[in-house]
What does this fold into?
Amino acid sequence: MQRQPGKVALLVTCVVDALAPGTGAAVVRVLRRRGIEVVFPQDQGCCGQPAWNSGLVREAALVARPTLKALARALARGAEAVVCPSGSCTTMCRVHWPELFSLAGMAAEAQEARRVGERVLEFSELVARLPALPTRPDGRRVALHHSCHMLREELGLRHQPVMLAERAGCQVLPWPGAERCCGFGGTFSVKLPELSAAMAEEKLRELDSLCPEALIGCDTSCLLHLAGRARARGRDLVVTHLAEVLDAAESGHG
Amino acid sequence: MAGRESGDRHRFLERLRRRLARSPGAAHGPTPLLEGEPPPVDYAGPLDDLTGAFCEAAARLGALVRRASRESLLGVLDEALALAGPGPVALTAEPETAWLEAPLLSRGRQVVRPSDGPLAVARACLGVTGAVAGLARTGTVVVDSSRAGSRLVSLLPPVHLAVLPAAALVPDHGAFLRSLDLTSLPSGLVLISGPSRSSDIELELTLGVHGPGRLMIALLD
Amino acid sequence: MGEFGLEHAPLRERARAALAQPHLRRNLRRATDRFMEARASAFAQLADPDGLRATARALRARTVARLPELLEQFAERLLARGAHVHWAADAASARHYIGEVARRHGVRKAVKSKSMASEEIGLNRYLEELGIQVVETDLGEWIVQLAGETPSHILVPAIHKDRRQIAALFGQVAGSRVPEEPAALAAFARACLRDEFLQADMGISGVNFGVAASGSLVLVTNEGNGRMVTSLPRVHVALMGMERLVADLAELDVLLALLARSATGQALSAYTSIITGPRRPGEADGPEELHVVILDNGRSALLGSDLQEALHCIRCGACLNVCPVYRQIGGHAYGWVYSGPIGAVLTPALLPSAAARELPLASSLCGACWQACPVGIPLHDLLLRLRRRRPPAGMAERLAWRVWVALWGSPRLYRWSLGVVAALAPLTRWQGLSRLPLASRWARGRALPRVPSQGFRHWWRENG
It folds into this structure.
């Protein structure tokens, strides 16, 4: 889609829904500021990824199905796209849903998932195509974490987050391990917790000498995991989703 | 004389055929299969000057490259002898190298032939072979051990001098490999790109673990 | 097998044991960073790296799809050249054959160049039990052999050892002190192993690629030990995984362009040997007998399954070098011959052990392996397929998932559960929370997330 959509549905993601409402709010404001109407299908839930990554097909499909249907209804009622503040959830819907429902023996849902999935856009993917608005420059030196799902071939979103951060007036620091996996990995974080924490530790240790004023990114799960490790090692770090950085810069409220 | 076969070929391959006949059933669909011959590998950057490129690439690998004519080849040989120090010289009887026997003898060097055996070749301080091709992009010399009569002359002595006719330069390993006649390959062909090397100890590069630590290439115009 | 004697310990324990070794982790970081950097430079020499990877992927797919006919052609060409061929359906068959060849020739000492397949079938121990001395000649493999350990990285097997440790090992061999400088250590190894090469009765090698159309064996090495092992002893035994074929030299072109670049960032390794048959009349050296052992050992089980692509692997090691998990724990924690992402796929596919079944969990599914693989194997996807074959089995976990589905499979109950979380928010400041099951695992090295007392839907109600 090249031109600006008039109306989008928000897939807020379970993590943001429960743990990071500010991020959802920021997404809505950023889009509304550009004259885009945002609808929020109430029946949405989780995209099913935690179970999918654990090899539990049926469980993932049962949980993803209501979300699929909620998005399908919104699209049928005039939403032109679905916006999602998470690279991993976007990948789940766009790339894996058809296979998920197929393997679960839900052929009709698999068909629907193909139609719905291709309309799901990650937040920075969409906003990068939209006009920039005047901002009160953020001014901070930030480390930008590129989450795995953003980078992989399926989404290929490497420069969009950087561009938006710079539009907001951030200085994005050169971080050697920026593109390395943070170690969250869904259930991996609790099945192999020491290894998961060690992966976060290495990324954060690289920041010790860079001294960023904030750590930003596009996947809340990664950010919560990195923030958790940062607090545990006693060097608290401001960790924020890109949507909130952009929203703050655009609204003039820091 | 044909080799012997053992194990159960039929059963082995039948198992493969049976398994392949199952459908993988991946939701993505089957992986695309290549059709026809793969096109030659495309490298970045032009390659106008095969000789220049070859010399540069070989030097970057730590090989010593000397351009020479048949007349000035003896000068290169002297340099190789100085590098190798005192001791016998192993020599192959290839067109580019066979005539070096007399000059070596006149320089007071014992000449070891492949037929003298591995221990004799191992005692040589320098191995001199021809080369049937040079690969410009990678600075590689190709030694045909059937033509050379030996696999060891280019392998055992600590210094290897390869005499490579410049006319045998080709762009890359693909150009060389695709030109070969599959029905008449020699028993041993080796593509040599620089001296022997290892980084097994603390990732520090050391040359000359097992194979020659010094490689000299005489590029014959 | 098992550096820490932990091969039967759960994956989590093996990972923790590895994490407790800062020296190992520092070496792994250095090695993998260096290889990745070198790989990037080497790939920049290609005009169209992604196109080449796609060609290589399609090429390997075709080879595996045609494997029976290509293997037949390969064997026929080998036999016509006077090489002997053994079809080894399993490890025992391969070991037995090689042992028999050794016995017939009165072999007392065998020298080996790098062969992961030989480790896979436990060849060394088998031959040693037959009274044959087996000497590894790849510098890193020799170091590891002297230490009585297993390799920790497929390209630099002794990456977990520093020069002091290596000097100590060599000192034991020498019976006197050996200097710690790498150049001196290498010179010592060269001298020792040179004697072994010259005395050995049999050489055992792996095969990087078998060329079906000519019956040739391709060996890709850097040290020269591969050339010595396959040229000096009078008998050469080459052990080849059955899937390691190319149809012809045009296919070899493509894979050679990718192999060394992906492994160490070299355009070509120091030595690419193409061996076609044993010594011929008039040649002064080379083995009198060449035996090629074609090994199945469970590989055929992958054919026709959704794991078939794992057989496309050309053993370059790129996936190890990019894997953020391998980087932290190294090869030993995987418990077997093949480590890193490809190891996490192959090991459970080839080995029926309980420890192997956990390996697909040793991944955050980041996908870096897939991006690095020169033949485009979707390793992250294969790991997921393996997880599907073995979903969680523990009772507590299965119960948890059932509860999750019951709550989150219904929009109403999903919203209700969010409300519960929000209502319990004040409790999340309670320290004891980190003693609860999942929370305690999260809390291993991380602070628990702060839970807001009002979730997104509250904001939406106010601002929708």
Observations:
- Helices of chain B lie at 9-21, 50-60, 73-84, 101-106, 118-123, 145-148, 173-179.
- Chain B touches chain C through 91 residues (CB under 8 Å).
- Chain B has a mean pLDDT of 94.
